[in-house]
Predict the structure.
Amino acid sequence: MATVVLDNGAGAAKVGYATDKEPRIVPNCVTKAKNVRTRIFIGDQIDDCKDLSGLYYLLPFQKGYLVNWDIERQVWDYIFGKDALKVDFNETNLIVTEPYFNFNSVQEAMNEIFFEEYAFKSVLKSNPSFLSQYKYTKETNAPPLCSVVLDTGYSFSHVVPYLKGKKIPEAVKRVNVGGKVLTNHLKEVISYRYLSLAYYTLMFVHVFIERRNWLYQFKLFELPALECLAV
């Protein structure tokens, strides 16, 4: 029996079968183009769009929580459908991540969709940090007594401590800084120093090309532990 693992992030969904070596990364959004009025682009279908200058996208998550079920269903239909994983729901288990401190109403709605609409064989919901520390403890010969996972997502970052493989809920701390804040800050820095990217959110890579057409420039520093750090 197959098992699908879905890390349902607010910015991107990482999904694949448990036997896959690498997950498939799909933008968790529905995108529309001003010059293409006959279709919408779901997830990584945006790669089919030729003109990226007039895009606007709809996100299912707001401030780290799932609020737009219509958009999320479209993304899940695409991920589980014939264009991506081709899931046989009656013979497939699902492991899906959910936000920390998730609302009961959201949890109940997810259960209803996965069991009644998609008809998965079984569903396991977990926080992303639990899967990370579980993998680490399984691959370590001497599992640590305690561990701390820093989970940085699209909207927030969470510091999650574990003791003997169990999360300590009352010790979980949230920091209101995530990938969205960092991306917006980078956009402001780039717009101020180079060119205006107010309407070209997918063009960041071009500003990293220097005068000599170098894409990246690294400096290596030798650390006391004889390890190298690339900056």
Q: What stands out?
A: The first strand starts at residue 2 and ends at 8. Helices lie at 69-80, 104-117, 128-139, 179-193.
